[in-house]
Specification:
mainly beta; four-stranded antiparallel sheet; 0% helix; 49% strand; globular; binds FE2/S2 (inorganic) cluster
Length: 103
């Protein structure tokens, strides 16, 4: 099981925002959906678009390249063209720090 590592402060990702952070050589997207933090891979499974440049809409991450969508909680595809889900990572908030377990 992966260890939790600090990736950001809670103030770094405002409600409705998504930001990308480097964790152990991987790009990790941290999203703040209605005050709860979620983390996923920051790479669209359709054509490797950077999801952090997209929008967070009703709990779905919309890829800026072709409009594919993923459920921010589960990584499941909710709108084509992507065919495969994105990875999600466990998130833990400790004080003002956001920690993510990236495998
Ligand atoms: S690269 Fe994300 S929908 Fe095409």
């Amino acid at each position: 099981m992966a260890d939790f590592v600090t990736v950001a402060k809670v103030t770094d990702v405002k409600p409705g925002q998504m930001r990308s952070f480097a964790v152990d050589g991987k790009r990790v997207l941290v999203a703040n959906w209605e005050g709860t933090f979620f983390a996923t891979q920051d790479l669209c499974t359709h054509d490797n678009g950077t999801l952090a440049d997209g929008e967070l809409i009703d709990g779905e991450i919309e890829c800026p390249r072709h409009g594919g969508r993923f459920d921010v909680r589960t990584g499941a595809v909710t709108a084509l063209p992507p065919m495969f889900p994105i990875k999600t990572y466990a998130v833990h908030v400790e004080g003002d720090q956001i920690l993510v377990a990236v495998d």
